[in-house]
Amino acid sequence: MFKTKRFGFHTIRAGINSVSMLCWFMALSLIPLADATALNLTGPLFVTLGAMVAFGEKVRIWRWTALIIGATGALMIIRPGFEAMNIGALLAIGATAMAAISKLFAKSLTKSEDPATIAAYVQFLMTPITLVAALFYWQWPTFEQLLGLMAIGVLGSLGHLFTAKAYAIADLSFAEPIIFTRMIWATIFGYVAFSEIPDIWTWGGAFTIVMATTIISYRERVKKQAAKPVITAL
Fold first, then answer.
1. Whose CA is closest to 168, among 111, 227, 89, 88?
2. Residue 93 C-alpha from the chain's centroid
3. Torsion angle of alpha carbons 195, 141, 163, 209, nearest 10°?
4. What whole-number distance in Å separates Cα of residue 194 and Cα of residue 196?
5. Contact in structure between 122 and 7 (CB atoms under 8 Å)
């Protein structure tokens, strides 16, 4: 799994990912979660623009439209009310931009690396990098907190693995808009785990997000079908 000829690339990506994560957690301590989440939804825009520059991917009107519709739906759900830009908001934007750069590195790595290798290296290398920062504020977790951290580790690792696999078989600008569906999953889990009943804005936003991802998925399927060679009978 750890066999690679691009160790430097893996190291740079782990460093970028570590900075992004630290900025994100710091932002959460300074601004409301809804505001941070709203800023984080700019991620697909950063990735799409980065894919255009780094890989020359063509992003046509349908993808731009789906991105805008998806962002609108997400904002309908969280309804952020920003008053003024502060250091927390800047950190959230910085974390999102750095995460987008990390995804561009992951896309480049999929050309020569197995998705499992990409996921393994980012987890393996982020541990010593983030340990340096953690030593200055270290607190031993309780048993309950330790179980929660282990669950985050497992789910986060699976997330990295699935993301790397998705980038190996799809354009970034196609895969990224799917991130908006996390608002729908949050609504479902919130109801099941915490008995939170979504209001009309949540349902309206969820419907808008589904519409956006459906549009982009449909257009991608149409484009692939059109690109297939036509075989005529002799």
1. 111
2. 13
3. 30
4. 5
5. no
154 in Cβ contact with 43 (< 8 Å): no
- Tell me which residue of 81, 65, 78, 98 sits closest to 177, measured CA to CA: 65
Tens digit of each residue's pLDDT (9 = 90 or more) over 174-231:
776 676 676 677 777 777 777 767 678 767 877 787 777 677 667 666 766 676 665 5
Q: Rounded to an integer, what distance in angstroms lies between the CA atom of residue 138 and that of residue 175? A: 37
Q: Which DSSP state fits 196? A: P
Q: Which tokens is 26 given?
A: 């710091």
How does pLDDT run across 13-33, given as a tens digit for each residue?
A: 999 999 999 998 898 788 777
DSSP states along 181-205: GHHHHHHHHHHHHH-PPP-HHHHHH
Cβ pair 216, 170 in contact under 8 A:
no
Among 63-72, 111-120, 189-198, 203-212, the minimum mean pLDDT is found in 189-198
Q: Which of 10, 225, 29, 218 is nearest to 117 (CA)?
A: 10
Per the model's pLDDT, the better-predicted residue between 215 and 72 turns out to be: 72
Domain definitions of the chain by residue range: 7-227
